[in-house]
Amino acid sequence: MGRKKQFLKVEGLNTYLSPFVLVYIERYLNNSKALLRENKLLKLEERNLTEITRAILLKKQFPGLGHPNTTEAQLLAQSLNLISKLNTLKQEAVKLQKLKYNSTDLNHEKELLELWNSFNPDEELSARISDQWKDLGFQGNDPATDFRGMGMLGLKNLLHFSTNYPELSKKVLKDSQDKKYWYPLAIVGINITSYCLDLLIEDSNLLNIHLFQNGISLEQFNEFYSYSMYKFNEYWLQSQLTPFLNDKPFTVMDFEQALELFKKREFNYLISGESTNLIDILANKSKKLN
């Protein structure tokens, strides 16, 4: 996957929108008392963008008295359209998170078995309920119980990582199985889902910029998740060379604290602007492993 454009073309105009401007507009809408009603309407599943755009144009006294053909009106309409898509993505992600894994649902069972096969293509699962799941980093012999907090979103995130980045995910699995410095990969994955969902719901600048740049979709949310999985593994391995916690490498006993440190470190790293496009990072890393 190549790098996406840093700016978004505005339909009908010879101009582009910066993802940073979109983040600013969304944050302004969320914090504006004057536009409280419009912001609420924008977050409904059924929303009339034309009416919302006109209401904002009039309230904020844009040039043209609310006429939709002015440059300002078209820029605002395009911005609201993208922010509306972001709100839809949030709703989709939360629905998946609330959708509990159901062992009687054949589609759920199929995806779970796909998860095993994508991580372990050369090892057959002896039975649906098996201690082999512990090798993948689940707590017990039935992974369904571990997905309770993040529901099907947790499973779909892990499955995206393992199927779209097969060599990278296998390397991460192997790293997580180190005899001395192992960590529970699947449990980490579910915690990373929680982290990414929090960023999405809380309108994190770093995730929103990624989505505005690369496309507002569940696919791109999954890409951000995959990047976070890769970076956590890298962070864990780095601790073996340069200890972060009390001058000693992480062990599984430090897992929760290590995860919190990772979240803070990765958040600061991404918002610093020093990182390159995360899709490029994943693609380049995968190429090196192939």
Automatic annotation (TrEMBL):
<dbReference type="InterPro" id="IPR050868">
    <property type="entry name" value="ELMO_domain-containing"/>
</dbReference>
<feature type="domain" description="ELMO">
    <location>
        <begin position="107"/>
        <end position="270"/>
    </location>
</feature>
<protein>
    <recommendedName>
        <fullName>ELMO domain-containing protein</fullName>
    </recommendedName>
</protein>
<dbReference type="GO" id="GO:0005096">
    <property type="term" value="F:GTPase activator activity"/>
</dbReference>
<dbReference type="InterPro" id="IPR006816">
    <property type="entry name" value="ELMO_dom"/>
</dbReference>
<dbReference type="Pfam" id="PF04727">
    <property type="entry name" value="ELMO_CED12"/>
</dbReference>
